[in-house]
Structures are given as C-alpha cells and as structure tokens.
C-alpha cells in the first residue's frame, strides 16, 4: 500500500456493503461499473467480488496506487474482471469510455482534501479539493444518470439535496463500523431503493 492509501482506502466491510447496495440498486440494464477514483482498489475489488458486473473499469491518477490496486486484485482473484486506466477520470470517461455510457454506472470516492476533512462539523462540498461536488456531478451527468458518490460522513446534506435535479431521486446512506459512521454514500438518479 502507498502511504496515502492507508488513510484513503475504504475499510473492507464498508466497501463490501457499498458494493452490495450499488449492485442491488442499479438497473439490470447497467452491466458496467466505472470506479472513477480507484486508488489502491478497495472499492473496485469489492465491486468485482459482488459478481454483478460484466466489466469493471478502474481509473486512477497515481501510478503507484494502480500498481498496488492490480496487486490487491490479484490477491483477491478478481484481476481478470478489472481494466485499469492511468489518468484523469473526467478525460477518460469522456474520451475513452463514452461508448459504454448506456451500460454504465459511475462510482466515485473523490479526494476529500486530505485528513483535515474530519475536523469540520459539516463538510462543505463546494470547497472540497481538488474537485467540488458541482464539478463532479456536472461532468458525470454528461455520461450517465447513475452516480454513487462516497463522501465524508459530515457532508452537508443540504448541498447534496440541492445538487439533485428537480425530479431526481437521491438516497444518502451512512456506512458505520463499530457504531461509528465512516462515510456517506449518495446515490443519484437511476438507483432503486435497496
């Protein structure tokens, strides 16, 4: 694991639960999962292990993280289900994966701006760095309406509600371990209740 991955990787029990919710909530016509900020593969591997997706695409800017992710996927026996892309997720979705838009859902655990996010009583998603909530959603909605965002547990729910389209369903779930919330995952658009 890389140094930053130790505090950035989703704990395995949480990743497995998120993967189950994404798999159960996505329409059957969606058979491709794209993990936009894959890191060392914690969530990506959980998606692959769910058995739900015909293909998983993992996108990551950090080449060392990709090497760790590929190694981790081999350890879990799911490396043949995952295609890795090195680069900017917004460019890759737009330029390389666009033909898959009708079959895909996007999952993203974007960078939250480092460990300092945990000190904010309410995390301001408009100032999240290096990508703000509106920038992420504007770009992703050009590709698909099925979007799941994994965000800090203190994320501003009003901002998330305001970011939804007028008739769009939005579901927010806190994921906990040992009685403490670890993060929130927000499901936009096509996801059904599960």
Please tell me about this protein's structure:
31% of the residues lie in helices and 22% in strands. By secondary structure, the chain is of the alpha/beta class. The longest helix is centred in the first third of the chain and has 14 residues, at 12-25. The chain starts with a helix and ends in a 6-residue tail after the last strand. Helix 2 crosses helix 3. The mean pLDDT is 91. A seven-stranded mixed beta sheet has the order 3-2-1-4-5-7-6, with helices on both faces. It has seven helices and seven strands, in the order ααβαβαβαβαβαββ.
Share of residues in strands = 15-25%
Which residue ranges are poorly predicted, with pLDDT under 50 across at least 5 consecutive positions? none
Q: Going across the major beta sheet, what is the strand order?
A: 3-2-1-4-5-7-6
Order of helices and strands: HHEHEHEHEHEHEE
Global shape: globular
The structure class reads alpha/beta
Task: Give the averaged pLDDT, no decimals.
Answer: 91
Largest sheet: 7 strands, mixed
Radius of gyration, in angstroms, nearest whole number: 15 Å
- Could you give the distance between the termini? 33 Å
Helix content estimate? 25-40%
Helical stretch count? 7
Key features of this structure:
194 residues; alpha/beta; 7-stranded mixed beta sheet; 7 helices; 22% strand
